[in-house]
């Protein structure tokens, strides 16, 4: 998978490209709008990550030009501007997704994956993690064959974590998906719900399933790393 | 009408001065006119009396007393002229007395004898027992047989009637003039002060959200123009200072994002490296937690600066505040249950207009605050109801409360009621400031009541959707 990163802040570009390369993406970096446009129009990329505040050609204009030339390439916009009008303007100009700085790198990865696959990450109706089974159609959860009763919020949280087993989800990603942005950052709401979820699904704990990654968030997996 | 307003005071003073002047003038006029008229009437009577003395009494010696009593009616016809004439002999007995007048019905026989006196001429006002008053002039005429006294008088009624009419005119006219002049003055003063009312109404309407507006200035060259200009210059300076601080917050939070992005991405990747030991990963995680927290503060500062810039109503829709409050409380229920806090919800349909996501932020922030500062097994209550013309949202708790010194400051940015309240990873001291900014931007307000140790109550007022 080949990704173009148009970002003028050298250190941000380095951090993102290093992280993406570690995930086995091929990354080209360009630091100006003009260069970014030139590269986007020369090569075929699977995905373009575009910062909006660029020297030279402004990001919005680059976005518009790429979209005019290539309607299909997914474009993820990065910006420090998160005012609503600008968000709307960029979606109209053809952005597929939007991420406000500073963001969790894990979130960038999840979004890139979602954009590349164009659809739910895991489309099976039955998700299995170790001996935990989640039936997305009936919304039933079993562990070791034993039925576990969850509240709707607990279920939504579990299903989200199970959408990519092993992937670390940041608290803000969880809040945004399971609740909405109003709850972001104000409460320990994620921690409380995760604790209750743990009590239910790890009641007879041969294997811990939900892993806490300090400073980042949570992941659901059967490999007990910590 | 406000009795302390400038126009009321000016008009009252104006009316009082006018009334005083008119009353003094009327009194002087009345007294002066009364005495002047009496004097004129009396001098006429005196002239008649002298005439009688010189032409008739002087001849008593040669012609006899009968001459006098015969001639007076012929020459002076006192009855037809409504005049009173009496001549007394030196011994005090009456030589002649005119009869009742034809038109005026005073009775001459009731006139008491003149006071004994040495003066050659005197005047007096005599009030008869029947109520009539007479103006009488009296002179003494020296003859060989002694001093005869001649009295000539006339009714005081015409003078009194004139004075009564004057008094009536003054009593009615003065108040009418004073009232008319005051009303005119009030209108004039109101007109002159109308620009002041306009200036204060506009100044009242100017807040941090519309500092670009200016007061109306009428180019009249008067004091009010100078006042309006001075106020406008002050608003301009305020505006500049405000813009400056707003730009600073926006720029600063913007500039902080790039380094925070780098920090966060690098730390996350370091932590995820397989070669990182669990102990190091934990310390990196601690750094990450602080980085995330810093990011939140920056984000909220930026949100506040946008609210200040009046961007609160990016979208404005009508929605049910009661349903929003109940729904939000449900989403946070576990937070309360986790600490055995009883979260009770009582809402009724309350439709308001505004940015739904931001109003939800208000509910979340207030509930979060209430749960955070309530001891385990306490109570938190959220209510939404109508109190025309307001939609009211109330969040009360049985928590630790807020001290009286802290209460006025809790909506200030970064204010810490006490160090204990800053616990928790997200406490940046901006939650309530955001609540207030959102409420203000929606044309509402928020107030806090608290009894330390007993609990707090936050009350949000938003305009009802019309």
Question: How would you describe this structure to a colleague?
Answer:
- The complex is a heterodimer of chains A (226) and B (466).
- Chain A is an alpha/beta fold.
- Chain A is built from 8 helices and 12 strands.
- In chain A, the strands form 3 sheets. A 5-stranded parallel beta sheet of chain A has the order 2-1-3-4-5, sandwiched between helices. A 4-stranded antiparallel beta sheet of chain A has the order 6-7-8-9, with helices on one face. A 3-stranded antiparallel beta sheet of chain A has the order 10-12-11.
- The model of chain A has no long low-confidence stretch (mean pLDDT 83).
- Chain B contains 10 helices and 12 strands.
- In chain B, the strands form 3 sheets. Chain B has a 5-stranded antiparallel beta sheet with strand order 2-1-5-4-3. A 5-stranded mixed beta sheet of chain B has the order 7-9-10-12-11.
- The longest helix of chain B is centred in the N-terminal third of the chain and has 50 residues, at 6-55.
- Chain B starts with 5 loop residues before the first helix and ends with a strand.
- Chains A and B meet through helix 1 and helix 8 of A and helix 5, helix 6 and helix 9 of B.
């Amino acid at each position: 998978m080949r990704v173009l990163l148009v970002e003028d802040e050298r250190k941000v570009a380095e951090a993102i490209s290093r992280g993406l390369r570690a995930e086995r993406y091929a990354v080209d970096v360009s630091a100006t709008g003009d260069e970014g446009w030139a590269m986007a129009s020369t090569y075929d990329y699977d995905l373009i990550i575009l910062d909006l505040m660029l020297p030279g050609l402004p990001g919005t204009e680059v976005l518009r030009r790429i979209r005019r030339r290539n309607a299909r390439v997914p474009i993820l916009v990065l910006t420090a501007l998160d005012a609503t009008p600008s968000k709307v303007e960029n979606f109209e100009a053809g952005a597929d997704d939007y991420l406000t700085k500073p963001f969790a790198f894990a979130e960038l990865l999840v979004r890139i994956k979602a954009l590349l696959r164009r659809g739910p990450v895991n489309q099976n109706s039955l998700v299995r993690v170790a001996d935990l089974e989640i039936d997305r159609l009936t919304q039933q959860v079993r562990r070791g064959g034993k039925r576990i009763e969850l509240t709707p919020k607990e279920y939504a949280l579990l299903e989200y974590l199970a959408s990519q087993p092993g992937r670390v989800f940041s608290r803000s990603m969880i809040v945004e998906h399971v609740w909405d942005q109003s709850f972001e950052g104000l409460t320990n709401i994620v921690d409380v719900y995760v604790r209750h979820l743990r009590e239910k699904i790890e009641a007879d704990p041969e294997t811990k399933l939900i892993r806490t990654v300090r400073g980042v968030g949570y992941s659901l997996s059967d490999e007990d790393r910590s | 009408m406000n009795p302390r307003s400038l126009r009321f005071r000016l008009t009252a003073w104006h009316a009082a001065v006018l009334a005083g002047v008119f009353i003094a003038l009327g009194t002087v006029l009345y007294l002066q006119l009364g005495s002047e008229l009496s004097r004129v009437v009396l001098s006429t009577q005196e002239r008649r009396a002298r005439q009688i003395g010189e032409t008739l009494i002087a001849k008593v010696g040669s012609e006899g007393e009968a001459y006098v009593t015969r001639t007076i009616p012929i020459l002076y016809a006192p009855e037809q002229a409504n005049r009173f004439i009496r001549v007394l002999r030196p011994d005090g007995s009456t030589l002649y007395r005119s009869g009742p007048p034809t038109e005026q019905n005073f009775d001459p026989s009731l006139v008491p004898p003149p006071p004994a006196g040495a003066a050659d001429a005197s005047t007096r006002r005599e009030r008869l027992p029947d109520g009539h008053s007479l103006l009488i002039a009296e002179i003494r005429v020296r003859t060989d047989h002694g001093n005869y006294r001649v009295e000539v008088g006339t009714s005081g009624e015409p003078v009194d009637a004139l004075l009564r009419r004057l008094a009536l005119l003054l009593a009615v006219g003065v108040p009418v003039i004073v009232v008319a002049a005051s009303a005119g003055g009030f209108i004039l003063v109101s007109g002159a002060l109308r620009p002041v009312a306009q200036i204060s109404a506009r100044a009242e309407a100017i807040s941090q959200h519309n500092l670009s507006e200016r007061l109306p200035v009428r180019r009249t060259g008067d004091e009010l123009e100078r006042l309006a200009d001075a106020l406008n210059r002050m608003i301009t300076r305020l505006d500049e200072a405000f813009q400056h601080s707003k730009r600073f917050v926006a720029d600063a939070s913007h500039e902080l994002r790039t380094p925070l992005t780098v920090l966060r991405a690098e730390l996350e990747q370091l932590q995820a490296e397989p070669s990182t030991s669990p102990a190091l990963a934990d310390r990196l995680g601690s750094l990450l937690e602080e980085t995330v927290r810093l990011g939140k503060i920056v984000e909220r500062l930026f949100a506040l600066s946008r609210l200040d810039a009046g961007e609160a109503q990016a979208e404005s829709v009508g929605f049910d505040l009661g349903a929003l409050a109940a729904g939000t409380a449900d989403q946070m229920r576990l937070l309360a249950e986790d600490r055995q806090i009883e979260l009770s919800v009582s809402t009724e349909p309350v439709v308001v207009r505004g940015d739904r996501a931001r109003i939800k932020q208000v509910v979340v922030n207030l509930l979060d605050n209430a749960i955070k500062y309530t001891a385990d097994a306490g109570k938190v209550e959220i209510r939404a109801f109508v109190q025309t013309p307001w939609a009211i949202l109330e969040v009360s708790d049985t928590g630790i409360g807020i001290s009286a010194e802290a209460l006025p400051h809790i909506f200030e940015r970064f204010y810490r009621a006490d160090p204990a309240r800053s616990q928790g990873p997200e406490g940046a001291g901006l939650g309530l400031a955001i609540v207030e900014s959102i409420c203000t931007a929606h044309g509402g307000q928020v107030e806090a009541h608290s009894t330390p140790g007993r609990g707090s109550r936050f009350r949000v007022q938003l305009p009802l959707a019309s």
